[in-house]
Amino acid sequence: MSTSPFRLLIPAALTLALVGCAADTPEEPAPPFASETEAFAAAEATYRAYVDALNQVDLSDPETFEAVYAWTTGDTLAEAKRSLTQMHADDWEVRGRSIPTTIVRSDHPDVAAASQALAVCLDVSSVELENAEGESMVALDRMDVQQMLVTLERDDSAPIGLKVASVRGRDGSPECD
């Protein structure tokens, strides 16, 4: 029985056509934000949501930690899990609210960048932290308003497309009152 040359060419042609389609260059993903203004607004909204989640933490109820975890990533997520779990285990109590008083861009935002940075002033004057014996765990020299640099990273699973990746103290502009 002879095989028609066309019978062999058709599967070969289909294979080449499919391989050719798979080899096409994938399209570049669209930037997550349409403008610098939109990028800053997303970073600010993410940071405010993170602070709101922290303000809702009840150290006696680990379910309240989940909102904090949802807004964080990387080392910040790991540290939040470690510290909140330890404070819960040690039967600590937190009261009061942190209030962002200033939030400005720390760098020139790039709408396609994987991260955004904010310079923040955070009023923590009403926040109290006590151990199981009722002793304050707040440092005596704590400043009422903290200067911080907040870095946020792209995360498509986040409601606003960003999560808090790092929060650290900073010096410089803007000055916090």
From TrEMBL:
Keyword Signal among record annotations = yes
Keyword vocabulary terms for this entry: Signal
Report the superkingdom from the record.
Bacteria
Which range is the signal sequence, renumbered to this chain? 1-22
What is this protein called in UniProt? Lipoprotein
